[in-house]
Specification:
This protein is α+β, with helices and mostly antiparallel strands. It is built from 4 helices and 4 strands; from the N terminus they run H-H-H-H-E-E-E-E. Strand 1 and strand 2 form a beta hairpin. The radius of gyration is 21 Å and the shape is elongated.
Length: 162
């Protein structure tokens, strides 16, 4: 039994597969979020398009979505917060971190996604990246500091020139 890509303790056949193959509808916004992550991990572009709210479907790019899904190695999904989105509600949001790699670079995609029911079915409306603090690996080089390349010049007169 292989766990579902969405990170649940269930197998894929017990968790997201029924949603991806259209056998059942996601009962909550979180269930749809998990199923969409699994769809990205499996490059199931039809499901991703089908579960995009009709107000945004015209902007959906199958080609770009397929490229991103296929060129990424999907590692994990971490659900951080869920607001609303229950079976008896019509709107909700899910804050998550999706970890994936592209070209040997590991990326943590931190987003808050909005969901809304459309004809009684949960759909993805939009997502907003969560601002993350940038941390430098090395100390910042000031414009009047010696250049890091070892030339002996000030940074502004060497590698810092535009």
């Amino acid at each position: 039994m292989t766990n579902c890509p969405c990170g649940s303790d269930k197998s894929f056949t017990e968790c997201c597969e029924p949603y991806l193959n259209g056998m059942s509808k996601a009962p909550t916004a979180e269930a749809l979020m998990r199923a969409r992550y699994s769809a990205y991990a499996m490059a199931n572009i039809d499901f991703i398009e089908r579960t995009t709210n009709s107000s945004n479907r015209a902007e959906f790019s199958r080609e770009n979505t397929r490229k991103w899904a296929e060129e990424s190695q999907w590692h994990s999904l971490e659900i951080l917060n869920v607001i609303g989105g229950k079976e008896d509600e019509d709107e909700g949001s899910v804050e998550f971190i999706a970890t994936y790699s592209q070209e040997d670079e590991k990326i943590k995609h931190h987003e808050v996604s909005g969901f809304r029911k459309e004809a009684g079915i949960w759909t993805f409306v939009d997502g907003h990246m969560v601002n993350q603090t940038f941390r430098r690996d090395q100390p910042k080089i000031g414009r009047n500091d010696p250049c890091h390349c070892g030339s002996g010049k000030k940074f502004k007169k060497c590698c810092g020139q535009k």
